[in-house]
Amino acid sequence: MRIIKDEKTVRGYLEKHSFQDIFSFDISPYTTVVFFDAGDEICRQDERPEYLYYIFDGTIKLFFTQRNGKTYIIDFLKAPCFIGEAELLVENTYTRGVTALAKCGSFKIDIKKCGQMLLEDPVFLRYICRYQVEKSTRFTQNYGHNKAYPLKVRFAEFILMNSRNDIYREQHTEVAEFLGVSYRHLLYVLSDFVDRGILEKAEEGYRIKNRRELEKLAQKD
Amino acid sequence: MRIIKDEKTVRGYLEKHSFQDIFSFDISPYTTVVFFDAGDEICRQDERPEYLYYIFDGTIKLFFTQRNGKTYIIDFLKAPCFIGEAELLVENTYTRGVTALAKCGSFKIDIKKCGQMLLEDPVFLRYICRYQVEKSTRFTQNYGHNKAYPLKVRFAEFILMNSRNDIYREQHTEVAEFLGVSYRHLLYVLSDFVDRGILEKAEEGYRIKNRRELEKLAQKD
DNA sequence: AAACACATGTGAGATTTCTCATATTATTTA
DNA sequence: TAAATAATATGAGAAATCTCACATGTGTTT
């Protein structure tokens, strides 16, 4: 984690990401820039955050752990996104865990100092409203989705979305959690893909050998 | 469906439900009161609604139908709740279907006439923000939940939540959809509950005979 | 280098859940 | 009132997914 407080530098980032546009008052006095490395904890589950983060670069992982110890990845969020906006708006909300998946750049806003102003700012509120609606829409989509199709369909789609140059190299443990199936089962389906000549194991991960077939699987008529 | 436009009556309902409190301008000129009967369609899927509804009494069902014809119940919403707030806030959002499950009373707001004012009203926006956050929190909860436990656990919990005076009488077809399992499987689990002496079939529905056992099943340590 | 944590793989067998078929009863609709 | 529609109910067999057990590799920590 690297914190940048230097006023000029902070202003530079604010400009670059048009962050001021979301507010009707000057946000710079309450803002610092923070960079996270992959794996850094941004927010601990069940701890009320003291800051509102706006991730302008990178990817984060949202998860929560149930009392039985099982953790569920709620979502992978790509920049731009907020962290802690729920807690700002609703007193008794349940805080989820957040970690950086890749290097992240963010604005960190001190809500102790400007929380009240934020809650009264129509520009900010409208932005957050929209953001929330989009988030929950995507979620619902994903939800029906997950229940609707067996893993091979969802996994095929996931592989297509998360491969570059025909190479898929996500961590199976994480993906199994995200897709809501056991690690074992994911591996079954994976090896089935290999058996069917759709994927091929390579040094750098799994190579997509038959994209057409993968797309056919992924398309959920 | 019954529409009430009489100004005095509308004002009466507005007062009763403190609806004006959510706005910083006078909402009454844009509002009528509408009652829905069980089964009425409030909003058709994929059709952009022209009104924002605030349900002050009753229960509605939110669902969407996928291209393959399968419908998914997203949620049962109990009053008070909004319908159409997503569409007001986000241009290109995907409209879900909404039907009344029980008799509903609602305020119907003409967003063609006051949409812009709503989008600039911090009181309204803050309320909606909170509402959205709570909604999506509940979703997330439900989501991890659904994936985490086999049906008998989720169903046990559902029965406990949806019974009165030890009588459970929801429609199995609806519930199966909501819990995201096949009708057949729900019936299997149901009859298992009966076999184990937890439930008992009665005239008016199913009677809870062994609440302790049901609670034990429902609790997901 | 030993010990450890953790991701990757594979096997066997059990459980959960699904699809399809088929009857029987309401409830709606023509 | 007859016909159509939808909910309830049950059976058989298959597919999807899970748990547990275990082996291997790789990178960290001590």
Number of strands of chain A: 13
Unreliable stretches of chain A (pLDDT < 50, length at least 5) are none
CATH superfamily of the largest domain in chain A: Jelly Rolls
Strand order of the largest sheet of chain A: 1-2-9-4-7
* Tally of individual domains of chain A: 2
Instruction: Give the oligomeric state.
Output: homodimer
Shape of chain A: elongated
Q: What fraction of the residues of chain A are assigned to beta strands by DSSP? A: 25-35%
Could you spell the SSE succession of chain A in H and E letters? EHEEEEEEHEEHHHEEHHEEH
Write the layout of secondary structure elements.
The structure is a homodimer of 221-residue chains.
Chain A: E1 2-4, H1 7-16, E2 31-36, E3 41-43, E4 51-57, E5 59-65, E6 71-78, E7 81-83, H2 85-89, E8 97-100, E9 104-110, H3 111-119, H4 122-148, H5 151-161, E10 163-164, E11 167-168, H6 172-179, H7 183-195, E12 199-202, E13 205-208, H8 211-218
Antiparallel strand pairs in A: 1-2, 2-9, 3-8, 4-7, 4-9, 5-6, 5-8, 10-11, 11-13, 12-13
Helix pairs in contact in A: 5-8, 6-7
Chain A binds a DNA duplex (30 and 30 nucleotides) through residues 150-152, 171-173, 181-185, 187-189, 191.
